[in-house]
Structure formats: structure tokens, C-alpha cells
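Researcher: Here's the sequence for the chain we discussed earlier.
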Amino acid sequence: MRKFATTRLDVHEHEDGVVELGGLKRPLPRGLYRIAFRTDAGDGDHLVELGYAATGLDNRCGVVRLWIRCANGRAAATFVIPEEATDFRIKTADRQLFAGTQQVRLARLSSVVSKLASLAYRASSQLSQPSQLPRLARDAVGIVSRHGIGGLIRAVDASPQVMLVEQRIEQRYRDWARREESRIEAGREQLEAHAAALSLQPKFSIIMPVYNPPPDVFREAVESVRRQFWPHWELCIADDASSDMQVRSLIEALAAEEPRIKAVFRDRNGHISEASNSALALASGDWLGFLDQDDLLAPNALYEIARTINAHPQAKLVYSDEDMIGERGERCQPRFKPDWNLDLMLSSNFINHLWCVRTSLVSEAGGFRRAYDGAQDYDLLLRVVERLRPGQIEHVGKVLYHWRMSATSIAHNPEAKPYTRLSSERALSDYCHRNGLAGKVRLTDGSFHVVHALPSPPPRVSIVIATRDRLELLDKCVTSIREKTDYPDYEIIVVDNGSRQDATLAWLARMEAEGAIRTLRQDGEFNYSALNNAGVAAAEGEIVALLNNDMEVISAGWLGEMVAVCLQPGVGVVGAKLYFPNGTIQHAGITVTPDKVSHSWFSGFPGDYRGPQSRLMRRQRVSAVIGACLVTHRALYREVGGLDEIDFPVDYNDVDYCLKVERAGHRVVFTPHAELIHHESASRGKHVTPAKAESLYRAMALMKRKWGDRLNVDPWSTPGMPAELGRIDGS
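Model: Thanks. This is the structure I predict for it:
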């Protein structure tokens, strides 16, 4: 087997900064590639966009963003082409990058090289944290036990794409973090002056329970508080009867050095909740923050929280992004969080660190509860947020907390404290009971799934399917619904857009005669929005489900899950997790972007890829979901005007509808617990014809004009992620 299969492509440069790569004799298969060429550009990294035309059923255009590294007159980058593709072009802001370049070499790494690269990356990342090697071995054993050796091979085979996304973020984050630390420290004097000028001057009581802390890291944790730009703080330390007698001496010495440090020494060990409550009893500030004994606050942490309180004086809870401290002291594994996301909070404690809350609210909630040790923060957070409106919870999109990894910490090893899962499950079940959410809590793939109970009787659902011929798709879709769906009350409305094939017409007539479907005839030019609007107008159900004719049901409970979520207070739209026929992800929620309007999260990635913070496995609020499988309220559909037949007859009608629903005050929710296969766009054929491309660009321009600033930042994705790191959504 050859190590590389190399293709030489000619370079044709245009004045607009676009470089066409010509001379490709046949489409390139999906896989891991390396591009290399000579360059006159200076040493450094250059962000470019590699555009291509996909050769699949929809023949859409795709874009891969990659960093090309230049050194000593040579340029190279490794990247993934996620699907069979042709017609490559590169857009760059640096005209010097390809100046004088006649050819580039594009080499596809063989499957063996791809697997070795993936294994090398995974091993190197684990070797940097030696305590995690046993976990890596357990993961491999678990895959083999469930799926055999073939499953392990498939996991490794699928991982180069995952590897490149994670590796790119990790490498660039470490460099960015060092630069950011220097920038923040250089601006200390200016930020301290700005802090003094703020009209609201909250005092923060930092709660720190301790038990036998390692002295060095404990000193670092305390010092991170003392180095805060914000001067109005106190550190409330509760020693939980440490058996190491040096701990008391160390705490007393630190308190003698800094009058803002308070300490209490418990007579007996009561574990973390009781120790935290002892620290709470020392607090005199109007706001509380929480710091573990071996973690660190960024020096600007309390300043950024105070600045947010001044900008949003109605806020009662403020949280930030965070990262990890590796076993060698490096900052790594950033956790960029969405804005307040109730649905995600009911899947996991995504807030975690840092969070600050009004002291009076914690008193009202009753403080920490010993019965929930291991998940005491999650339990308290749930009791706090149920007392708040969404506008009273603010997110600071900056990394203000550094969570230290260790062999016994759940920062990197969720199995380190197994009792945490049980306490979290109990805390979440209690929340559901207190708030009248009927159902039960299940643990699925390390995330919680609140299985909401349907009312009795459940509402009737009208499934609307637009179609034109392609009987093989329509029959598979309808048959899979009827044979696999366990929801008790639904109707199927097929909106026929001018089918002409005898077999299709006979099938429609037979199915309608059997009472399996209702058929609406809607002739004329294809207008997806108009077809679905006609179907909804004829619907009898309180809930409507828009479904493409190229969908295939694979799980019995898909409709029950989507309807149950849709019936939750404040929810207006629900979308499912969709897969391509090869098992890769097609849809896991849609993010909005200022350039391309929208992007489907991690489309083309392995079906079991968990995503950042396992978010692809968790129910959560999103900006939009795909119209190929969309559940909503019939009354709400009519209230916001349904799908826009005029401006968005084909493209972006689903994104536009979801944004209208959001504007009307309702949430759009993605659930991974409803799964279907999407034979994407098979029924419409190839997408990139001149007329269809013109339609797409027109719709894109209309979306940008209509929604403007709403497309600039997606609050439900990773709004705090620095642009220098690229995109974390797999695009």
C-alpha cells in the first residue's frame, strides 16, 4: 500500500483573492489530505477557505477552513475533505501566499496513515496527562466489548476528522491563552481604573471548602483570589477537619497576610456540602462565588463579573466560560458555553465554573444539602435558577476559571467520583418534581435525559410530507412511520406537487383508500414553503410535524420524544438528530453565522461523535433546526405566518421560521433522543444548477437583510469563542 496518493493541481489566481486549482481528472474521495506548495509568503500561519463542489445527491458547495503553515518558503496543511468533491478553489486574504506558485501537491493519506495519525494524536494527548492512560485503555476495551474489533477499527478510522478539529482548537487555544494572559496583565492598571469608576461596586464572598489540600496548589488558588483586579472581595475558607495538621497552620498564615481572608475550622469532617455551608456562614458580601481548593480564578474574573452586573443590574446569577489546567500546568481544553440554556441545564451542569450569585438568593434556596454531595453545586444551581427569569441570568463569554485536572478529579475523568452521577440524577429528579415536570430521569451516554410524560390522551399529530414522484423514497418514509412509530395518534398528510408517474399515482390512491394517508394535490413550481403551508392548513392535529419524503424512521419513540418536548412550557419548535445513510451526522442543530447564514453542527462527522462538552448527545436550545424533521404547534405556526412562500420558497425557510418563533418568545430545541435517517435532497436532485445557485444566493441575501445582527453571534452555540481559534462546530 502506498503511503500517499498525490495529485498535482495547477494554480490560477484571480484578482478577488480566489485561487482556482485546476487539472483534477476525477473527484477526490472523502478523507485526510495534505496540501503542500512553495510560497513567497513570510513564516507564520494563514487562515484560508477551501471551497469545493460535492458530488453527492445534492451536489452542494462546501467549504473547509484550514490553517496553512508557512516556513522557509514552503507551505503545508493537513485537513479533512468530508465528502467526495471536485472543483477546488481557495480564498485567502494574503495575496502573497500564492504569488508565483504554479502548482500545489494534494496528497491523500492512506487509511493506514490516517489511523496511525489518529492513534498518535490520541496517545500523545493522553501521555501529556499520564493519569488518563487507564481511561484510554478502558475506552478501547469498552468499544471492543460492545462492537468487537471491527468497532474499534471503525472508531479509529472515523477519528482523523475529529482529531483535526480537536487538535486545531487545542493547539491554537494554548497559544492564544498565553497571549491573552499577557494582554490582560499588561492592561491591569487600566482595568483597575475602570473598575473603580463603575457605578455598582458589588462585594464578592468567595466560598472555598478545603480538606487536606496539597499545599502548593492551595497557595496558588488563594493567590489567584488575591491577584484580582477587583478589590471588593473576601475569601471564606472552611477547613473540613483536615487530618493534615499543617493545613490549619497554612490557612492561619495566609489569613494573617491578607485581612480579606476569613477562616473557620470545623471540629468534625462533614464533607463538602456542610463545609461549604460553614464557609457561607462567614460571607458578608452581596454576591457569592465558588472556588475549589486546587483551582484558579483568572485575574480579571471578578472584574468581568462586576462589569456584567453593572451592564445588567437585573442579573442575579452570572456565569463564565472555563478551561482546564493540565498536569504539567498548561491551560487546555477550553469550555466555551452558550448563553443561558435551560434545556441543556436539564441534561448536564453546563454552567459548572465560574458562577456568581446574589447571596440572598442562596439563603432563600437553603444553601447546600449534604444528601447531594458530589453534585452539590448542580443541586444548588437548579434550586436557584427555578427562582429566576431568563433575563436574570447572564453569561460572560470569557474564560475566567481554570479547573485543575488530577487522577481523582472529574475535570478530566468523570468516573473519578462515581457517586456524583447518582447525586446529580437525584438533584435533577427533585427539580422536575418541584416544577411539575412529569416524567423520569435517565442516564444516557453520560448525559441526563428527562423523559417527559405525555398527557392522557396525547395530542393528535399531523405529519405533513411534501412529495413529487420518487415513490421509492416516499414509500420507505411512510412505511417506516407506520411500522416503527409507537405514538398512538397521528395522521399523515401527503402534499403531492404534481406527481406524474403511474406507480406513484396508484400508490397515493391506494394508500388514501386504505385510510393510511390523506392526499392534497398542489401542482405548480416546487415551493417547499407553500407545500407545507397547504398541509398545515389542512391539518387536524394540535401538533404538526414537517417531514421530508426522504426521511426514514429508525427509532420507535422519535415522535413521542419530540411531541413531549414541544409541549414543555416555552418550547415552540423541536428538531431531531438526523444521520446520512452511511451513519454520519447530517443534523444536530443549526447555528447561525454572518457569512453563510446557517450551518448544521458537525455535519459529516461520525454518528457517535460527542462534540464539545458532549453537546451532540444532549437536549438543548438552538437557533434553528432543519425543516426535514420539524415539530411545532399548529397554532404557533399560523401565528408567525408559517414558512415564507415569497422570500424563502426553497432555501432557509426552516431557519427563518425558527427565528420567527424565537422572536415570538419561544425556544427552539434540538433533541438527540429522536433519531432518523435523512437521504438528503434525494428527491430534488442536484442542487448546484445556475438557477438554483441564484435562488440560494438570493435567499442568503434576504436572510442577511431580514435578520441582520441576529446572525452575527449565535447565543446558543459558543458566543465567547475567540475568532482566532476558528470554528468549533465542525465547519
